[in-house]
Amino acid sequence: RNFKRQTECRIDISRLNAPFLSIYDSLIPPEEEKGKQKQLLTLLEKLVSKEWPEARLFLYGSCANSFGVSKSDIDVCLATEDPDVNKSDVLLKLADILQSDNLQNVQALTRARVPIVKLMDPVTGISCDICINNVLAVVNTRLLRDYANIDVRLRQLAFIVKHWAKSRGVNETYQGTLSSYAYVLMCIHFLQQRKPAILPCLQGMERTYVVKVDNIECAYFDQVEKLSGFGSRNRESIAQLVWAFFNYWAYCHDYTNDVISVRTGSILSKRVKDWTRRIGNDRHLICIEDPFETSHDLGRVVDKYSIKVLREEFERAAEIMQHDPNPCVKLFEPY
Ligand code: GTP
Ligand code: MG
Fold first, then answer.
1. 140 CB less than 6 Å from ligand 1?
2. Each residue of 292-312: b (16+ CB within 10 Å) or e?
3. Beta strands per DSSP E along 35-183
4. Which single residue of 114, 181, 242, 307 has CA 20 to 30 Å from 173?
């Protein structure tokens, strides 16, 4: 596979900056969407506090990590006072409450891997998933948002990669491809690895934010306003980075041996993590370590069929970036 590997981009890539930036701009949600999300959250808080006065609601996922495109659903976490409540009971009760308040399409999915209630708010038109006590997700949302505030190229790259993944049908965990969360981690890791680095490794720095969640200590440097010039020694443009990102995943990543790790800002070996063989449904064919739940491989959903689909898509994207006269159109063509 490696025969196609390009060590440098020989085409004139700078002409692609403007079109990539205009795709990025078109995906940014307008300010008014934030307002509507707040409005829905306020309504939910009011309804929840009647039944569970001590409970708190947190936004997580793409509506709070700054990697959300326009018209995304919002993800809400209901944190109860008792961390060991029966989630199904809470969800069924919650579904009742929501339904009586005229929220639409209310559905409790109590058997899902992450049990949730789904709903649609007819006033704002926003759809929402509510989970119970998934506090780790709230904390990793915060980590992603903090990374996004260090260098704007992360948000630009991640929007383009997510847009590509959605257009090409490789952003579907139930079909064995990767979650948006996994793609954002891939982008962060990639920018940590550039020379000079565009992003630091926040978990390897002084611990200014520390919380313990589900017995996992989550700690990192969160005073990111002090890091705003961090990536400025690296002058790579968004078009160069998109080219290099796909080139890396198409031809340079060692799928047999390597694990990418945002936590350490480096590559780890599968052997050290004991991720070399299939255990249960975890096959570890592409390995992305969760920054806090370090035993958790975000690539676990990928199977022997979907790894092929995924790698062919990376190669297609790399080829388009290298040879196509109009990559900004071809890259995002529906599959
Ligand atoms: P879009 O909805 O596609 O815009 O992206 P999103 O950022 O909301 O991502 P996604 O729906 O994939 O996941 C929602 C959040 O769940 C993530 O931002 C993480 O905070 C959290 N999460 C934690 N572990 C996992 C995991 O294993 N898979 C997924 N999908 N999400 C996880
Ligand atoms: Mg989401």
1. yes
2. beeeebbbbbbbeebbebbbe
3. 56-60, 74-79, 104-109, 116-121, 126-132
4. 242
> In angstroms, what is the span from residue 76 Cα to ligand 2's centroid?
9
Residue 194: name the closest of 240, 152, 229 by CA: 240
- DSSP 8-state secondary structure symbol assigned to residue 281: T
The tens digit of pLDDT for each residue in 137-187 reads: 999 999 999 999 999 999 999 999 999 999 999 999 999 999 999 999 999
Neighbours of ion ligand 2 (CB under 5 A): 61-62, 75
Q: What is the DSSP letter of 254?
A: -
DSSP-derived 3-state class of residue 282: strand
How many CA atoms, within 13 angstroms, populate the side-chain half-sphere of residue 190?
A: 26
Q: Which whole number is the average pLDDT over 101-118?
A: 95
Which one of the ligands is nearest to 163 CA?
1
Set out the domains of the chain in order of their start, with CATH numbers: 2-27+151-330 (1.10.1410.10), 31-136 (3.30.460.10)
State the average pLDDT over residues 85-97. 96
**What is the ipTM for the molecules in this complex?**
0.95
Nearest residue to 241 (alpha-carbon basis) of 329, 152, 153, 159: 153
Return d(Cα 251, Cα 2) in angstroms, integer: 5
Average pLDDT, the chain: 95
> CA-to-CA distance for 233 and 37, rounded, in angstroms?
37
Q: Report the C-alpha gap between 181 and 140 in whole angstroms.
A: 9
Q: Which of 118, 128, 140, 181 is the best mutation target for the ligand 1 pocket, counting ligand atoms within 8 Å of the beta carbon and taking the most? A: 181
Listing DSSP states for 190-213 in one string gives HHHHSSS-SS--GGGS---EEEEE
